[in-house]
Amino acid sequence: MMKRLLITLASVAFATFCASAQAQLRIEISGVGSNQIPIAIAGFADENLAPQQVSAIIKADLDRSGYFKIIDTGTTMSETTAIKFADWKARGAFDLVVGSVQRLADGRFDVRYRLLDVSKQTQLSGFALTDSADHTRLTAHKIADDIYEKLTGVPGDFATRLSYVTQSGREYKLQVADSDGENVHDALRSNEPIISPAWSPDGTKVAYVSFENRKPVVYVQNLVTRERTVVANYKGNNSAPAWSPDGSRLAVALTLSGSTQIYLVSASGGDLHRLTNSSGIDTEPRFSPDGQSIYFTSDRSGGPQIYKMSVAGGSAQRLTFKSDYNISPRISPDGKTLAFISRREGQYQLYVLDLATSQELRLSDSSSDDTPSFSPNGRYIMYATKSGGRGTLAVVSIDGSVKHQLTTQLGDIREPTWGPFMK
Amino acid sequence: MRHIPALALVVASSVLFAGCSSTKLEEKAAPQTEQSTGSTTPTQQDKHDVQTIVTQPTENQTADRSVYFDFDSYVVREDGKPVIEANAKYLSSHKNVQVLIQGNTDERGGTEYNLALGQKRAEAVRKSLAVLGASDAQLEAVSFGKTKPKAAGHDEAAWAQNRRADIVNK
Q1: What are the DSSP calls for A33-67, one per residue?
Q2: Which of B15, B34, B56, B111 to mutate to test the interface with A (most CBs of A within 10 A)?
Q3: Are residues B79 and B136 in the same domain?
Q4: Number of domains making up chain B
């Protein structure tokens, strides 16, 4: 009898952060905020010198945020152009954005911008940013972030990245993209599923679960050095990685003991420490922003509910009571709001719970919501859902008013995680 | 017995730094050397060192490897018992054979929670196999949850096919 050596069942490719042949995500806006700030955005002087049109990116960002009504000026205005404020007031603009782009001798670009209050005829903000040509989009996002912050009081989240998983047939990809769906890169390609990606707090790494070994294993992949480490491959399942706020540890769900329980492990692997000790399922851990508590899903009371416990161990406090099925806890960056998925009348939907008042709000009208993720400014939640039979991503503001969807050209997209603010 | 040496992480890294190309960089799975940095608890069956040559069903090994479950249930039904008995019998007389018991769920519900539910199904099969003579070292219960449905439909017929544990040679 010939003993056959089976070399591999799964072919896995580190795509080494190559730009994906299938380009961007398509974004469709379906809901806007109730009070939109009318803002006029001029073309930036000489912006066609740079590889990307800065004013167009700013317009798209502010438009997508749902809190602005974009007025196209139809003209170019630099930071030194004389402004006829009365004209802009007549056109209904509350604010005006102008700027310029200059190419430096070393090939970098200097982008200057000003945000002006049309009524008061004063400058609200302005700065210059110098960066390499391939960071033009990032520069534009930083300007949009500044405009958003100056006019809403909340930091913008345009200079951030997303990570998510796409599936087309048996090809799975872990991808990284800018928050506007541009600049898509493959971090991993595999013939087996990839789930639960999680950004490190410093934005340099993504933890994820890969089934390339025919069982779930937790990896941490460094997006800068392109190396990856196995962080948890214990007997049974290894899944649900969640970073501690200081980036030194991950909480994970392991079935080492026979049932799914939560453990802490060093972000480079090792130093394993068991956290939960129930007879049922404990999974989906998430650190609180201060790193002192863990939110998690547990069915210790019968069906899955959301609990909170101290990182030091001890008893857990139950947080969800409506419905017999509440999973996937996510805590907002300010620690005040819990997002989760609740099954009501057979529909799996995104909810938020105010932890102080215990008031809850349903944020979606769909029926197969999964894996929510807060934006780093806490204003929006991205989640996986189904539309037209396909997996898509959706974004909703925490008051439910702003909505948009992200779809990929081919196949399904799911498991989103919103990365931290980029410096 | 031929042993295939574990692929060094170095090889994997050199593949990584080969630069951007439009073709896939094929790499063998199971980064064995990474395993040693990750795990501080050496498991009894350190499967990455044991180069299990037999990874396909061998002659005489049972072909029927799947056990099905009712909705929200981890209890092995009557129709699963013959499958478990046959596999337990084979495993207890072939101690060099190791298996993964892969649990699955239907598509309804959250991904991570379903991974845990699928695990309960795998664990139920594992326990039954152990009781009937397979040794612990031969058995590892894992789960795919809802990530790899066998049946693609969105009705009870498909869901019933997907609520399943498979016994797979390592």
Answers
A1: -SSPEEEEEEEPBTGGGSSS-HHHHHHHHHHHHSS
A2: B111
A3: yes
A4: 2
